[in-house]
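#structure-requests
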Amino acid sequence: MDLTPFLLAWRHSALHDREVIDALVHPAHAAPSAELAAALRAWPGNYYWSDEPDGRHLILTRPAGRRRERWWLHVALFALTLVTTTVAGAILTGAIAYDPNPLHLLRGLPVARPGAWASGLAFSLPLLAILLAHELGHYVTARRYQLDVSPPYFIPVPLFPSFVGTMGAFIRLRTVVSDRRQLFDVGVAGPIAGFVVALPVLVVGLALSRAASPDPAFPGMFLHVGEATAALGDSPLTWALRRLVVGHTAGLPLHPVAFAGWVGMFVTMLNLLPLAQLDGGHLLYATFPGLHERVARTFLLLTAVMGAWWWGWWVWVFLVLALSRGRLGHPPVLDSYRPLPPSRRWLAWGALILFLITFTPVPFPL
């Protein structure tokens, strides 16, 4: 397919997963013209427009082949995470007795009644739906841009020391991103998709929760984990929803569905932290590339200071530094000079608001 009659100049980049063509369109076809529109309908890939100081550009992408995925591994990790989160849900409902000794707990699982396992699905299914929506938001957006990206890896964990059964999920982006627009879209799609699922889950779960008799030690939301009771912190959003759905209560033991929604909000908040290569770090670099490292260093320091009130922040700082190998800077994109569309800047403010309304200073006791 020959698009050169419609172009003034172009630059071709050959990557392992795709070809990228940055083309300056002739002013006569920048609307685009009917002829160019017909030619683009036959383009065997993805394209989008970019308004730049020298004129209108077309960013054309053509896939160069896909690697074979190890789907068995992704399915196995998902299935194992379904098991661990279902056990967590059954413990939260009291259907399976909690034993802090993981070996004792494992020995007792095979003899648990089917009904006990089924009760845990009230927690595991909505939680995995939230996590899957988050990762599919990243995955589908990356695939729309023809980027080489892995399917989601779910992370199952034992019930001790965690009482959730998973450390979440992630995808691997195995290529360089073309520009800041692509980086922004891939980064923001996950938190938005996860939030869209977590919000109704939380509302339904709060409606299923029943207010307890007042207990001065637990004035807000809390969970029963075996014989222990764990208080859960409020974000501005959970605080408002509790009062809208449940009313002013002195204490609220959460239904497993509500706890799944709470975890979904917590995961959204953690991912939107403007650090390193978290989703928030991607959005910060895409919106303000020159400020990324300074803001990330400042926020890392603030996060460490917050560890005085909840030492889980210190754990998170350590994990972020370990996964980024001590580097808070962001990897460059193929074309860092291409401007971010104005619509993405408005969406960046929306992501900041989403972070603020889901922020929980002290999520749970450690």
